[in-house]
Design a protein that fits this description.
By secondary structure, the protein is mainly α. It has helices at 2-58, 60-72, 78-103, 109-125, 127-134, 142-152. The protein has one domain (35-156).
Amino acid sequence: MDNLRKAALVAEIVGGAGVILSLVFVGFQVKGNADLLAAQAVFDLRESNSLMVRDLIADPELALLISRGYADRASLSDIETWRFDFWVTEVLTHRMTAWKYAEEELLDPEEIDSWESSTCSYLSRYEGARIVWDQGNSWIRADFRRHVEETCFADESG
């Protein structure tokens, strides 16, 4: 009977060690998955940004329209205004996606700072983009709008 107790104790110790090893393994898998999600988020943001830039470079007429809209949106025709507003909305939606990834902790602090400063710069540098922003486009989430207003324009309200 003594040998049976020893065998049961050994089996219990081995079983407990197995559970601990399994939990450690699952922990590594979860961490690896989180790292993969973060890397994918950064890749997706950069890829979509590259596609927008590629479209702008490949289409001189679009580039001219966007340039004119940024400088003097009021000078655009109705169809040009519509196209320009959709362009700005796409840029802002892209930046909203970056903000959402940051909220989900998929971006590191340096990446977050880069997206936030470029968003603030974009809206302060391009008058036409700021006009579209100020119109309160329904494609832009209210929580993102509040965040940008607090981050980029806090000193304008006072």
